[in-house]
User: Which sequence fits this backbone?
C-alpha cells in the first residue's frame, strides 16, 4: 500500500519505514525472516528555521516537524557587497521569523551554494570577498540553537 506522506504528516519517518518494509520484504524471499514494528506515541510538534541562501535572494521559513510552512520571508542577499552584509541579511530573516513566534525553535538549517563542508561555506560562486565562512557556528552561537549548513543541492 502506498503512503501519502503529505496527508499522514509523518514525512521522513514514514519514508524510512516504507523503505525498511520493502527491504524486509525482499529479504524475506531469500530467508525465513519476520519484521516487528512498534507504534510510537504522537510527538509534539517541533519548529525549525530553513534558509535558502542564493546569490540574489535569501528565502527563509519556519517549518514544523510535519513539513508545514508556518511563516516565511524573502529578502535580497547583497552577495556583491561582503560576507558581513550577507550574514546580516540572514540574521534579518531569522529575526523577522522569530518575531512574535512564541514557540521554541529547535534548529536552523542553511542551504548554501558552492562547497560547504562541516558547516563552512568555501569560496562560493558570485559572493564577493568570501573565502571560508563557518555559517553553522555563526548562527549556533548567535541564536543559541543547533545550526547546520550544507550545499543547497544536498
Assistant:
Amino acid at each position: 500500500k502506498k503512503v501519502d506522506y503529505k496527508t499522514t504528516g509523518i514525512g521522513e519517518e514514514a519514508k524510512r519505514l516504507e523503505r525498511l518494509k520493502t527491504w524486509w520484504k525482499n529479504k524475506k524471499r531469500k530467508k525465513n525472516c519476520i519484521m516487528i514494528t512498534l507504534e510510537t506515541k504522537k510527538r509534539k510538534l517541533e519548529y525549525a528555521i530553513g534558509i535558502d541562501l542564493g546569490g540574489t535572494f535569501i528565502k527563509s521559513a519556519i517549518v514544523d516537524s510535519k513539513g508545514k510552512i508556518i511563516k516565511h520571508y524573502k529578502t535580497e542577499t547583497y552577495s556583491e557587497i561582503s560576507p558581513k552584509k550577507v550574514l546580516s541579511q540572514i540574521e534579518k530573516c531569522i529575526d523577522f521569523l522569530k518575531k512574535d513566534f512564541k514557540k521554541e525553535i529547535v534548529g536552523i538549517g542553511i542551504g548554501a551554494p558552492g562547497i560547504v563542508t562541516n558547516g563552512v561555506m568555501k569560496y562560493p560562486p558570485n559572493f564577493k570577498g568570501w573565502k571560508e565562512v563557518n555559517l553553522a557556528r555563526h548562527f549556533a552561537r548567535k541564536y543559541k540553537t543547533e545550526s547546520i549548513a550544507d550545499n543547497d543541492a544536498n
